[in-house]
Design a protein that fits this description.
The structure is a homodimer. Chain A is of the alpha/beta class. Chain A is about 40% helix and about 20% strand. Chain A has twelve helices and twelve strands. Chain B: It comes from Hibiscus sabdariffa.
């Protein structure tokens, strides 16, 4: 219903992930051009730099979105309630990274946001870009990761001094809905195979429950191939034969590692788009950020790579049902990467963020 | 105690990390009686296990190495490791094993994990390096992954709270974290390694991985000559596939170590060639470094095409452990020559030889 309507544009995004310009004309409904508000959270580190890049490009395109900016930092106790209210009103949010401090005390605000808004699926699309040489070819992997439970429950306690227990919680409810999302995604995007990543030989009950749920859902999609792979073998296969993977569905921790590995083999975390989606809300951010918000030097010299967030914002434009703007943005970004003249350090060049943004704006048609 | 750990450490001292074909020119001066044959427990295991342990036996015989194997049949679907096998390992102190297939789903615990717990083999070591003559996508890889082997996510403590909700306990203790950190730094110190990297996810699992990190930091202060840094595990996976040359020795808790070791093995040539072992204060068990959680597929078994290189290099580590360094050198040199030649390679290295052909080539290359 509303769910499928919301997910359809998100998914259509990933169908049209190639460089050719679409020749389809869209027929909008009257009033569709009304500007939509989007909550914007610049965040910490390179966050403000890359979200600013998105703002500039959106303005250059005259896209019908306007941003409601909120200041949130990783060392706050909670996400401020006005930010949560704004997201609940707008239903869509774009964010840079929030830096999670190490050690006890403050919980991860990224996690808190995902739990409160019940953004239970995290999606990262890792694929080779034309013109960007990598050690691995033919990579086109979508990692769908359960976002709310598993090893990230945040339930730890010190039993006696020097002994800590950390709870990994797996429930049938969450495993089932992430499996359903993964198969639905594969179905709608004409993907051939879904692979479940697990370690059920060791964690028999926990990952066993996850696998059961995946198997049940798989029976409802007989035309999609389903297989399972143990996570250590999966890491090894990712670095030797990544072309065998298509859509991967994983619990929380494995998804984090698999997504970052897949992002690394296909070009780096600076270029992979992604987002978190739930039944009602969607938050777009860099696909795989390797748990950090960039180094000091990158922030000072302003050489952060804006490509990942630009591609995520084009996913967002599709989600808001502005597909032609999304197409224009993606094509411009892909042209810039193909030409190779303006690339930030992680792609082997030496441009600053601003130079890349200007190049993208210049390539917009 | 020190005498027992000395051979283990000496083995790691002498193991040529990324080295090529030069034969060692040092003569060893044995003590009288050192040539007496030593007993080693051999567990062929499941799947490709019997095939590759058979390869090791053949090569040992061809070299006239002073070891003899006491073979025991253990299979992954047994309830426990049989008592006589444990007794044998406790007597011999050294064991060589193929893989034990752990069945999926409830019921039987992993026998590999059980063995490690009972013998308290708390450190698992995998040396992942580029082999000359074997082209890979990544160059300059020389990583040693030291993984805590007894606790962490592999505690095996799970229960179903209510139907449909399962809790799995990840246990981290100061005792275990400290001793694995000590082992890692000691290894780095004895092998002239420059850097130790701790892999963790303490931004999310603050108490558990935080405790692990504390222990690593404490031990790091005692080795000021060795650089120490920390990396979050997801960033680590990404760095491994983009810039693996930055890593040297890595110390990790149980689960991350499994994934990092397999990823590192994959980038440097595959799990078919990486040697490794499990060591504790009293015993040592040598096996394939990173086996990607399986014992080979059916086809490999039928066509007898499993890669014996990993277990051969692990058995060379074992020979050093038993203080037979010249035999270890000969074996390693022969294996490296065969790989450099490139004529006899199993399927995972891009060739089409069978296990037996590779073994014959190694025996022929022995001097």
């Amino acid at each position: 219903m509303a769910t499928s309507r919301r997910s359809l544009p998100l998914l259509r995004t990933l169908v049209a992930g190639k460089t050719q310009t679409r020749t389809v004309t869209y027929m909008p409904r009257p009033g569709d051009g009304a500007p939509r508000p989007v909550t914007l959270i610049p965040g910490d580190g390179i966050g403000p730099l890359v979200t600013n890049a998105v703002e500039q490009v959106m303005e250059a395109m005259h896209a019908p979105v306007y941003f409601e900016k909120y200041d949130v930092h990783g060392d706050m106790n909670r996400v401020p309630p006005e930010v949560m209210d704004s997201i609940r009103k707008n239903k869509v949010c774009l964010k840079g990274g929030l830096k999670t401090p190490m050690g006890g005390g403050v919980n991860s605000l990224n996690m808190q946001l995902r739990k409160e808004l019940d953004l239970y699926a995290s999606l990262v699309n890792c694929c080779n870009f034309q013109g960007l040489p990598t050690r691995h070819e033919n990579v086109d992997i979508v990692v769908i990761r359960e976002n709310t439970e598993g090893e990230y429950s945040g339930l730890e306690h010190e039993v006696v001094p020097g002994v800590v227990e950390s709870l990994k919680v797996i429930t049938k409810f969450c495993s089932e809905r992430i499996a359903k999302y993964a198969f639905e995604y594969a179905y709608l995007n004409n993907r051939k195979k879904v692979t479940a990543v697990h370690k059920a030989n060791i964690m028999k009950l926990a990952d066993g429950l996850f696998l059961e749920s995946c198997r049940e859902v798989a029976t409802k999609y007989p035309s999609i191939k389903y297989n399972e792979i143990i996570v250590d073998n999966c890491c090894m296969q990712l670095v030797s034969k990544p072309e065998q993977f298509d859509v991967m569905v994983t619990p929380n921790l494995y998804g984090n590692l698999v997504a970052n590995t897949a992002a690394g083999i296909a070009g780096g975390t600076g270029v992979m788009p992604g987002g978190n989606v739930g039944a009602e809300y969607a938050v777009f951010e860099q696909g795989a950020s390797a748990g950090n918000v960039g180094k000091e030097k990158m922030v000072e010299q302003k050489t952060a790579n804006p490509v990942a967030l630009l591609l995520s914002s084009s996913m967002m434009l599709r989600h808001l049902q502005f597909p032609s703007f999304a197409d224009r943005l993606e094509n411009a970004v892909k042209r810039v990467i193909l030409e190779g003249q303006y690339r930030t350090k992680d792609l082997g060049g030496s441009s600053t963020t601003q130079e890349v943004v200007d190049a993208v704006i210049a390539k917009l048609d």
